[in-house]
Design brief:
heterodimer; A: about 210 residues; alpha+beta; 4 helices; 9 strands; about 25% helix; B: about 525 residues; 5-stranded antiparallel sheet; 11 helices; about 20% strand; elongated; transcription regulation (chain A); Mediator_Med20 (chain A)
Chain lengths: ~210, ~525
């Protein structure tokens, strides 16, 4: 697991989501990246059940249960600003048993699917974010395999992102935050995806790149 | 208590037989109780064989002198290994009383009251034969590895004959399991050259023109097969190492299914390696998961081992043939004692007899793998050779040729001669078909003479000596060089008839030549 940056690519003006994805993948292929299959990251939302809330009427917490095809035998569960749990796939079965405490918000299942490219030490995943039948955005994930400390390789990652994202290059992810010297792990990637999905959920329509 | 009339109490024993059904007219049908053999089978199921210390036959045939048939429900005499086997054959055998006794005659010494009856397909003895043939035989010859006639191995003195029988039956069962697993994998695994499974033989081609055949040879003891012609078994035919390894591999497989890495394990986790259970919580990616799961089957392992053995034997044969064919320079091979099933190594030294301390620049470390040989030269070059034997031979020949020139260089240092030029790969002269020619030019300490050597693997050695001008009688008169001091310079070259030189090898001859050309100071 290397340092990963997950960002959103706005759709090119006058083009559909699929066309923008195609533009990006063509750029990557011209760069010399090698296609290596597909990937999928999905996220389900659960509310804490009303019965467990106290009489104070505090707002229920939202829990996200995510899967990543990069870690096929794992399941991730995280709260918004809270801890992220890495478990094996039996966790999904456990959630069924905990129906009384966590109710799933079926309508808000969101996922991103796309192709996986390998370019030397970089692993680039370009995916279409879909909620139900509609495509809502484009996610770009870049992982630099050899390094696990964010502060050591952020500038390299940024440079690489600029080479094919151009002006849509994101800033440093918030997960890097204050703990620059901490070891990066898969849970941090899932937190980034969760933030991305939440941002996309809030957007009513597909964002379009502004006129330069 | 006196005076009270005794009360009559009738006692009825509990119903011994369970009622199976009650008919409409009131008749009861009872469940037949278990017979002795069924009862024993039920009890034997409860026995934990992994804790037993003695052989199972003792547990099964508890009562001696009993004239009944006891059905012994046991799978083998060797508890530790046969558990963990997933072979569907149950391997049940019967323990019976030995009625083969004539009371009139004296009881023989090795008489044992028990005898065993084993299933007919486990009778006789079997072994797995692995052999390598250079040329592929006709397709019609496939599957003709005959049943052989082999006398039953002599039982150890003191061990009852049923033990021998059981051990032989166990061996047959193990061989059948090995062969079943190999043939299953041969059919399932896709490889470039498909494996052929015919009757009791599996044939595959690890290298072109090389055929590996694994066959199950089973002889039963009945009269029929004893009449069939016995096959001439040549001892070189078998690869006993691979047969032994097959047995080891299957036992390892059995152990793995019951190893402490698998058991105990949480009830909710699937069977598998302990680290696989951690792959979820530790978010292993695909590479890490693949490294945990060994995907190689028995057949692949055996084929890899066979390839390695073959490559190693051929390398040894090549080196030995070169060593016996070429006397100068000498080639030495030091094989390492420590090697792997897939890798061996040998150190090859090329030396000249009598000059081992001086001329030791050609030292090669050969790492023989499954399909390739990796050569590490003393000067740091790493060369990968394929399995072709010609490549290795050509390479060694070119190294031997280079050695001669290196030897001259070292000799020059010792003798005080100066190296004027040296090249491992000269671009002049006839082209060699194997490797390149090397050349060196050395000058005597006084500068009067120079020796020039060109040595190629095919073209052999050519030695020329350069004399000072004043020693050459047939020099044309020159207008340019008028001063007599120029006559001290070296002039034309003359070839040396090397085969007429005295000396038992190249370096010795060179030393003599150098000595002859360095005038004595006395």
């Amino acid at each position: 697991m290397g340092v990963t940056c997950v960002s959103q690519m706005p759709v090119a003006e006058g083009k559909s989501v699929q066309q923008t994805v195609e533009l990006l993948t063509r750029k990557l292929e011209m760069l010399g990246a090698e296609k290596q299959g597909t990937f999928c990251v999905d996220c389900e939302t659960y509310h804490t059940a009303a019965s467990t809330l106290g009489s104070q009427g505090q707002a229920g917490k939202l829990m996200y249960v995510m899967h990543n095809s990069e870690y096929p035998l794992s399941c991730f569960a995280l709260f918004e600003n809270g801890p992220c749990l890495t478990a094996d796939t039996n966790f999904d079965v456990l959630m069924v048993k905990l129906k009384g405490f966590f109710q799933s918000a079926k309508a808000s299942k969101i996922e991103t699917r796309g192709t996986r490219y390998q370019y030397c030490d970089f692993l680039v995943k370009v995916g279409t974010v879909t909620m139900g039948p509609s495509a809502r955005g484009i996610s770009v994930e870049v992982e630099y395999g050899p390094c696990v400390v964010a502060s050591d390789c952020w500038s390299l990652l940024l440079e690489f992102l600029q080479s094919f994202l151009g002006s849509h290059t994101p800033g440093a992810p918030t997960v890097f935050g204050n703990r620059h010297d901490a070891v990066y792990g898969p849970a941090d990637t899932m937190v980034q995806y969760m933030e991305l999905f939440n941002k996309i959920r809030k957007q009513q329509q597909v964002p379009v790149a502004g006129i330069r | 208590m006196s005076g009270v009339r005794a009360v009559r109490i009738s006692i009825e024993s509990a119903c011994e037989k369970q009622v199976q059904e009650v008919g409409l007219d009131g008749t009861e049908t009872y469940l037949q109780p278990l017979s002795m053999s069924q009862n024993l089978a039920r009890l034997a199921q409860r026995i934990d064989f992994s804790q037993g210390s003695g052989s199972e036959e003792e547990e099964a045939a508890g009562a001696e002198g009993d004239s009944q048939d006891w059905a012994g429900a046991g799978s083998s005499a060797d508890q530790d290994d046969e558990e963990g086997s997933l072979f569907p054959h149950h391997g049940t055998f019967e323990v019976i009383k030995n009625t083969d006794i004539d009371l009139d005659k004296k009881i023989p010494e090795d008489y044992c009251p028990l005898d065993v009856q084993i299933p007919s397909d486990l009778e006789g003895s079997a072994y797995i034969k692995v052999s390598i043939q250079k040329q592929a035989p006709d397709i019609g010859d496939l599957g003709t590895v005959n049943l052989f006639k082999r006398p039953l191995p002599k039982s150890k003195p003191g061990s009852p004959h049923w033990q021998t029988k059981l051990e032989a039956a166990q061996n047959v069962l193990l061989c059948k399991e090995i062969f079943a697993q190999l043939s299953r994998e041969a059919v399932q695994i896709k490889s470039q050259i498909p494996h052929i499974v015919v009757k009791n033989q599996i044939i595959s081609q690890p290298f072109p023109n090389l055929q590996l055949s694994i066959s199950l040879c089973h002889s039963s003891n009945d009269k029929k097969s004893q009449k069939s012609a016995t096959e001439k078994q040549s001892p070189e035919d078998h690869l006993y190492v691979l047969e032994h390894n097959l047995h080891l591999l299957i036992r390892e497989f059995h152990k793995q299914t019951l190893s402490s890495i698998m058991m105990p394990h949480p009830a909710s986790a699937p069977f598998g390696h302990k680290r696989m259970r951690l792959s979820g919580p530790q978010a292993f990616d695909k590479n890490e998961i693949n490294s945990l799961q060994s995907s190689e089957g028995l057949l692949e392992k055996i084929i890899k081992q066979a390839k390695h053995i073959f490559l190693r034997n051929r390398t040894a044969a090549t080196i030995d043939s070169l060593a016996s064919r070429i006397e100068d320079p000498q080639i030495q091979a030091h094989w390492s004692n420590i090697n792997d099933v897939y890798e061996s190594s040998v150190k090859v030294l090329i030396t000249s007899q009598g000059y081992e301390q001086i001329c030791k620049s050609i030292q090669l470390q050969l790492n023989i793998g499954v399909e390739q040989i990796r050569v590490v030269h003393r000067d740091g070059r790493v060369i990968t050779l394929s399995h072709q034997e010609q490549e290795l031979q050509d390479f060694l020949l070119s190294q031997m040729s280079q050695h001669q020139v290196h030897a001259v260089q070292q000799l020059a240092k010792v003798m005080g001669w100066q190296v004027l030029s040296f090249s491992n790969h000269v671009g002049l002269g006839p082209i060699e078909s194997i490797g390149n020619a090397s050349a060196i030019t050395v000058a005597s300490p006084s500068g009067d003479y120079a020796i020039s050597v060109r040595n190629g693997p095919e073209s052999g050695s050519k030695i020329m000596v350069q004399f000072p001008r004043n020693q050459c009688k047939d020099l044309p008169k020159n207008d340019v060089l008028q001063d007599s001091k120029w006559n001290h310079l070296r002039g034309p070259f003359k070839e040396v008839q090397w085969n007429k030189m005295e000396g038992r090898n190249f370096v010795y001859k060179m030393e003599l030549l150098m000595s002859a050309l360095s005038p004595c100071l006395l």
